[in-house]
Amino acid sequence: MMHFLFNDLVRSVFYNKSNECAGRISMGEQIKIYCHKVRKIIIMSFLMMLFCTLTAQAATIKNIRLGQQGSQGYRIVFDADTKFSYKTFLLNEPRRLVVDAYDINVSSEVEKHQDKMGWVTRIRVGTPDSGTKRIALDLKTPVIIKKAFMLAPQSKFGWRFVVDVISVTEREFNAHIGSKYAFDSHQGTAKNVDSKKTALQSPSKAKKIIVIDPGHGGKDPGAIGYSGIYEKTITLAMAKELKAMLDKEGRYTVYLTRSTDIFIPLRDRVKIARKYNADLFMSIHADSAANRNAKGLSVYTLSETASDKEAEALAERENKADVIGGLNLLEHSKEVTDILINLAQRETMNRSSEFAGFMVQEMKKSVKLVDNTHRFAGFAVLKAPDVPSVLLEMGYLSNRTEENQLKQPAYRKKLAASTTKAIKKYFDNMRHASVF
Predict the structure, then answer these.
(1) SS3 string of 182-211?
(2) Core-most of 2, 40, 63, 143, by most CB within 10 Å?
C-alpha cells in the first residue's frame, strides 16, 4: 500500500497533470508539493496505526453471565464488543467446560465472576498460544453442551456468545470429553448433528458395551479348589469363552479387565468399566466353603446391607483381596463398604437387579442354583454408581463335582450361553433407555 502511494507521490511531484500543457514546473514548486505530500502520508499513516490499535483494544470479552434454564439446564453468556471465532468443548481432571476465543482479549472481570448457583466453582483465563484466549469453567456437576452460538447486537446488548448446557450423569459427561465433540464456529456443529442421528437410532441397534471382569489374578489366586486348581484360572477361562460368544452376536463391544494372569486392584477394575463407558459390568468368580457339600450358582448385586451373614462374609473376603496389592483394607473395609453404599444410585441398583433376574431365569434352565439365587453384598467391584453391575459366583470349587464341571470347557460354554441369553433379554427389554 505504501509502495503505491509513494509511486503516485513521485509522479505527482515531477509531473503536474493540471499544468500538463505548461510542461514541467519549477524546482521550488516541486519541493513544496513534495513536502506537502509527505506530510499527508505521515499523518495518514499515523491515523491508520491509531485506528488499528483502537480496534484491537476494543475487541474484548467484557464479562460473563450465568443463568438457569429449566430444571436441568444452564446458559452461559459472554458479552463482547465484537463478533469472534470460538471453539468450546469439555475436559476432565478437573471436570471443566473450555472456551477457546480467537483474536480477542478477555477482561479480568470474567475471571473474577462468582457463580451464585454453585455449579461453576471457578473461572480461569489463560493463553495457550498466540491469538488464543482460553476460558475454563470448573464444573461442580457433570454437563454436556447442547448449543453454542453468537448473538448479534440487539436493544441494549452488544455481541454475545452463548453456550447452553444440560446436567447429565458422570457417564454421559465422560462420553463427550475432548475436542472431537467441540462446537466450532469455523466447522459448525457436526458433532451435534451426529448426536441427533444417534438419538434417532433404536437402542437395540447401537452396540452395547460390556466389560467382563475375571476375578482375582496374579498374586491373588482366589479360592483354591478341591484338586488344587486356582479360582483365577477358572474365571479367566470363563471370561474368554463368554467374550468369544458375545463377540459372535455382533451387537456388543466386549472388553476384559484382564486377559492374562495379572493382579488388578478391585477399584481399578471398576475404573476400567467406567473408562469404557460400560453399559454392563460383570465380575466372574467361583466360591469355596468349609462344607464340601455346598454347591450351586449365585448372582450378586450391590445392596445397602448384605442379604445374609454368608453374603456379608463373602463380601468382606473379596474386598480384602486388595491387601495383596499393597492396599490394606483390613482397617477400613467397613468404612469403604459404607461409602459404596452411600454412593450407589438407586437407579443403577434397580437395573443391576433387573439383569440379575434375567440371569437367574436363564441359569436355572441348565445348571444347579443355590437357594435365594439372587443375593446382595457390598462387593467393591459392584461400586460404580452409574454402571449396572453383577457378580457371578459360578459354583463351589471346594465341591468335587462342581470343580470338575467348571474345569470342563463344555460346562463353561453352557454357562456362557445362558449368560448371553440373559444379556440379550436385558437389553431387549430395557426399560431405562432414556436414562442415558
Answers:
(1) CEECCCECHHHHHHHHHHHCCCCCCCEEEE
(2) 143
Closest CA to 414 of 343, 364, 346, 372: 364
Q: How far apart, in Å, are the Cα atoms of 340 and each of 174, 265, 348, 349, 380?
A: 21, 16, 13, 12, 7
Distance between CA atoms of residues 184 and 85, nearest Å: 8
Please tell me the distance from the alpha carbon of residue 45 to that of residue 41, in angstroms, as a whole number: 6
Spatial contact of 36 and 53, defined as CB atoms under 8 Å apart: no
Residues 6 or more apart in contact with residue 231 via CB below 8 angstroms: 215, 216, 221, 222, 223, 224, 225, 285, 286, 288, 397
Nearest to 216 by CA among 376, 415, 397: 397
Residue with cell 491387601: 323
Q: What is the DSSP letter of 295?
A: -
Instruction: Report the SS3 class of residue 83.
Output: coil
Please write the tens of the pLDDT for every residue from 238-288: 999 999 999 999 999 999 999 999 999 988 998 898 888 899 999 999 988
**Grid cell digits, residue 364:** 436355572
Model confidence pTM above 0.70: no
Rounded to a whole number, what is the largest CA-CA distance in the chain?
A: 128
- Residue 280 near residue 213 (C-beta atoms within 8 A): no
pLDDT tens per residue across span 320-372: 444 333 333 343 345 544 444 444 456 777 888 889 999 999 999 989 999 98
φ, ψ dihedrals at 137, nearest 5°: -105, 110
Backbone angles phi, psi at 230, to 5 degrees: -90, 145
Count of beta carbons in the 10 Å neighbourhood of residue 264: 19
State how far the Cα of 239 lies from the Cα of 211, in Å rounded to an integer.
10
- Alpha-carbon distance of 79 to 290, in angstroms, equals 71
The closest of 59, 108, 97 to 81, measured between CA atoms, is: 59
